[in-house]
């Protein structure tokens, strides 16, 4: 079909007109494939372009930013040109983590960078972020415990080796080890109990987290690197796996409705709904790198 034929057919399907400039923008932004033949001297577009134009236009009604639109269109299963898609995925993560990356650049030692980040003034109890609220809930609303658990994660993310256990100095009140705090923060204790009921073992959490670090999954300094070496099929496979896992979000919601709490740690699949594009990119990155 020629551009004129596509625009005419799209207008009938959508009930409104797509301007030629808008069509051109979609094409230049990697949301519509370029012409691959000619008809009566005019460029014609590949089969499936009409459906792509209609679907992208509908997504564009609710998302006007092109980086986010590319990610959304890809997540919904539509074609997106690989090069601009990779740029968008990397940009979403890098922009969101810019503050962390800036602090890390000033402190070469992982422990110092982690300490500097955790020393920044913030009131976590006033935060409306679902992720922060879930973390506080799991840590019994203890700032000190949350800080200790986050320190471990940040040291790992910066390539260091955190202290997992502390020496018992005979205090009446025995403090939980950093490892126990991390397990509490991630919901690992609940998952371990649930897995044991069906005869499964979650494995060694220290080994698992170290493996994630060594695979660059926890990398906060260059989070876009994983996408820059990905192929179209790599990203499609990761997306398809993740879309299949979205059922876990429904299970998490049902568990909270039924039991009034996050029963087995599935809440992590839901807490980032407000940061949907960051979550899409981070999950794609995880599946791309997962050992």
In the predicted model, the low-confidence regions spanning at least 5 consecutive residues are: 253-274
Q: How many domains, as an integer?
A: 2
Fraction of residues in H or I helices? 55-70%
Sheet-strand content, in percent, reads under 5%
Helix count from the secondary structure assignment: 16
3D architecture notes:
It is a single chain. 60% of the residues lie in helices and 2% in strands. The longest helix is centred in the first third of the chain and has 15 residues. A two-stranded antiparallel sheet has the order 1-2. It folds into two domains: 92 residues, Orthogonal Bundle (Multidrug-efflux Transporter Regulator, Chain: A, Domain 2), CATH 1.10.1660; 192 residues, no CATH class. It is mainly alpha-helical and 291 residues long. It contains 16 helices and two strands.
Name a few traits of the molecule.
single chain, 291 residues, mainly alpha, Multidrug-efflux Transporter Regulator, Chain: A, Domain 2, 2 domains, two-stranded antiparallel ribbon, 60% helix, 2% strand
């Amino acid at each position: 079909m020629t551009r004129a034929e596509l625009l005419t057919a799209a207008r009938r399907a959508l009930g409104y007109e797509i301007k030629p400039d808008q069509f051109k923008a979609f094409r230049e932004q990697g949301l519509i494939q370029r012409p691959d033949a000619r008809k009566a001297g005019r460029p014609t577009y590949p089969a499936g372009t009409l459906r792509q134009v209609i679907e992208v236009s509908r997504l564009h009604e609710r998302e006007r930013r092109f980086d986010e639109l590319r990610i959304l269109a890809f997540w919904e299963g539509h074609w997106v040109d690989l090069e601009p898609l990779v740029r968008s995925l990397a940009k979403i993560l890098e922009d969101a983590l810019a503050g962390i990356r800036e602090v890390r650049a000033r402190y070469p030692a992982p422990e110092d960078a982690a300490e500097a980040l955790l020393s920044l003034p913030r009131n976590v109890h006033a935060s409306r972020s679902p992720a922060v609220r879930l973390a506080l809930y799991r840590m019994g609303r203890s700032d000190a415990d949350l800080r200790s658990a986050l320190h471990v994660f940040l040291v790992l993310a910066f390539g260091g080796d955190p202290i997992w256990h502390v020496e018992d100095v005979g205090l009446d009140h025995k403090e939980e080890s950093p490892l126990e705090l991390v397990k509490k923060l991630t919901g690992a204790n609940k998952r371990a109990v649930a897995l044991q009921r069906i005869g499964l073992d979650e494995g060694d959490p220290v080994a698992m987290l170290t493996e994630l670090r060594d695979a660059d999954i926890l990398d906060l300094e260059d989070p876009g690197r994983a996408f820059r070496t990905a192929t179209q099929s790599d990203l499609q496979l990761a997306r398809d796996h993740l879309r299949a896992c979205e059922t876990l979000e429904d299970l998490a919601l049902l568990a909270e409705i039924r039991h009034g709490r996050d029963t087995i740690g599935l809440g992590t699949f839901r807490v980032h709904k407000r940061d949907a594009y960051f979550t899409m990119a981070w999950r794609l990155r995880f599946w791309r790198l997962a050992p």
